[in-house]
Amino acid sequence: MPKIIIDDREIEVPEGTKVIEAAEQLGIMIPRFCYHPALGSVGACRVCAVKFLEGPFKGVQMSCMIDAKDGMIVSTNDEEAVEFRRNIIEWLMLNHPHDCPVCDEGGHCLLQDMTVSGGHGMRRYLGLKRTYRDQYLGPLVQHEMNRCIHCYRCSRFYQEFAGYFDLGVMQSANRTYFGRFKDGILESPFTGNLSDICPTGVYTDRPSRFFGRRWDYQRSPSLCINCSLGCHTTVSARYRQVVRQEARYSEAVNGYFICDRGRHGFHYARTETRPWQALIEGREVPTEGAVRAARERLAEIVSSGGPRSVACLGSGRSSLETQAMLGQLCQKKGWQGPSYFMDKSLTGKAKTAVSRLDPELAVSLRELEGSDAIVVVGADPINEAPMLALAMRQAQRRGGKIAVIDPRPIFLPFDFNHLPVRLDEINLYLSALVKAAVDPELIVDAGKDAIEFYQEAPSLEIVAASLQEKASILAQELRAGQRVVIVCGTQIVRETTPALAADHAKFLRAAKKQAGLFYLLPQANSFGAALLASSEVSFLEIIQGVEKGEIKGLIVAENDPFYSFHDRQRLELAIEKLDLLVVLDCIESTAVKKANVFLPTSTLYEAGGIFINQEGRVQAAPRAYLGGISIAQIGGGDHPPRVYGSDIPGGELRAAYQFLSQIGNGDQIEDDDPTRRSLLRWIADNIPPLAEIPPFDELSENGMRISSSNDTSPQFAVNWQEEKEKGKGSEGPLEIILTDWTFGTEELSSFSPPLMKLERKPYASMHTDDAARLGLGHGDKAKIKLDEGNLEVDVCIEENMASGVVILPRHRLLEWQKIKSLPKFVRFEEIEKVSG
Amino acid sequence: MALYNDGVGMAPSDLDHEEWEMIQDIKVLLPGFEKHRGNLIPILQSIQEKHSYLASTAMEMVATHLSITPSEVFGVATFYNQFRFHPPGKHQIKVCLGTACHVAGGDIILENFERKLGIKDGETTPDREYSVERVACVGCCALAPVAVVDENVQGHMQPSKVEGLFVQFQIEREREEREKAEREASE
Questions:
Q1: CB pairs < 8 Å spanning A and B
Q2: Were both Cys, which of A439, A671, A759, B98 would link to A744 (CB 3.0–4.6 Å)?
């Protein structure tokens, strides 16, 4: 390891470390525009020049281009280097407009900082400046090309790092232009990062334009809760509303970037339609009154029907505190639940994913980037958890091979092999691939279970003829891979798949590979929900209980079954049958409108909270601001209100767990902390994997990874006969698969106006053969006959998906709740073309 | 759905006639090239060879053929000086901005042409009469600043000479029209 002296201080760094990185480790920030740790060096901006006094290089050199070597003595503040850097900045500023007062980047602009700190305060150049035409790049990013200093960060991120090619470098030399072929919405779902990495104001965040300077904002670390990955963000709030969200560096989860869904998914907390006032039967009442009403009416129900006549529904988007409070109430009061999932199958899958996530096998998102073979089973990364696709792209760029076994038409921004098979075939294909990838000699001492598992697992013979070639290539790539990761979704797959994925990861480990396992869960805190959920009661059982008249009262905490339950008609009837529906939520939902008692809860930004991501990482987000109706909304614009009062409008919000505690325990809560503290104690005592959970504010930057696996769940217990039987016969009816899209299906982010502009109109995807049999053409409208009436939807014909399935997005503009049951099959006769 | 308008279902009059021809030609030309991104420059060259410029529709068609984005095609094409994106004018004006001409104020000459014609360098007037481009040294530095108008080298250029050139073109055009009118009258 080379030793290098920078500014008279010695440091030892690994071979291949650039001088600029070595200096950073010493706390010396050498100026940089083009260098970015995630993108590497290109030496385009010349502003990181330092003077090399001793060693293999001499004189002024670019510190981002030179590897640290033994014997190097470097000075960052040598007069010659300082002079050089000053000239570079002046040179870059020749064409840069003097528009800082109206530029949104002003205040957190790297170029501005460097210009000021470099001492270039006066303009000497009097000539004409180079100007460009700006482009429309969509609702998220504002383009202002005149400000460009040609550092190439944007095109390197967009093309090399993220794998999209509709934005790039045009022209050359003095006319170099960064943009698209012509105006249009950027195709990548990672475009917000352009505003983060641009060292000046070429790309700025469009929705938050002209709202404030960085120093105006209350900035605090936070978490993204728009999917289960739990990426780190920085929230900027001003005048009681969230204005902007940026990526926050995280070594363990998201690295330097986040996706657009996460970046712009916060608007639910500031929409004008957000319910701020407690309601009883639709009438606005003081919060205390609503809490009392809920408590009293629940007590009535319990006194007449016993504790089992009250049930609790939570969700995967609540903080762990809220989820645990539901658990505590159910435990203490004997109420039914808590349930967090819509049906038992989903509960089962989430519970399996949690209990089979062996700490030896679990990999973080960043560790996934280092794998050399990834098998994705029943997951659609770009739509379900976009940042996973970005991590997989990094693995692929380093030579990793990627296979996807999924019925949907998968798109990923890199080369991969897709085996489009039906849900019933996924298990077989996974086994066949893994079996072919393992050397039988290596597993002799792997244990009896593993050997039996290996012998009984299906081989590549089960693979359909059309996929044989692809599958054998995949098997070879897997065989060559040493660090293999199995990525398993939990949304669409059969109940057996998550356990099978774990079996295979274990088996690969037994076969001397560094195997890893990476589950995707439905929502941000589904992990916590799975730890707490009652395995007897899912929401479907609650509905059944209501129908039978056993359940009279229902408490719904931060969930909207009208959004997520797959049988709207049945749900409506059940809700009408209830004596009492108590809803606690922070978004305007159908459940809120139907509630007998409604309590407005605070969001993650106003209360903070603990979330556990899909790899079992317990992470805490502190409160970002105090809450209340934003000044913009009260003043009807960005003007402060003209009528003053001493209280904060909308200031009666509480976190859902506090309301629950008041309802259940009758506590008078004055302060936030005692409830949270006692709740965390309850969590530690009652949920073994969380026994070690530290107090809220002591959770470290990267959270704490818990070990949630337990040995009681059966391993290598697969009924291959049954699996093979199910995998046979493709002439049956078509299966409807409900799926997520990047934009438009996730509950919270669908409140975001800028993201609404990116939503596609919902359409059903169908395989070419199925569509031909139905006489449907691309873009035709199809009518799917369902028990609750017809579902009309546009058809998109795809070649790269499984036949025998119809893919429907869980889109808010599509009445998919008509499908009534899951899994759902429709016969060919039940789908027809709508003419005209 | 194709990104570009490939002329299907449209009458030639809907499109610029030249562009229509270019599209028809490209349709014939593209299958001759393997779908490999290394073929990008050869394809662009052969289109330009025949039509002397690249229309944006042409670049979108090439992008579709090679399964890359139009942005990549445009990025490569604009990088090189050899490609032009506007059809050449009847009279081609090349203004030298080589070292000697630069020192002698070649940029002032270029600006004069641009202002006179209302176009930027690399562009063509809407009536297709003139196109202006900058070149780097035409090899007669002693005459700096130099402009090459059609095939004629104009040395020691001055703003007043720019005006003079256009007066000449104007006289030429009027003479042609007069002769044409006389011919028609005599027939």
A1: 37
A2: A759
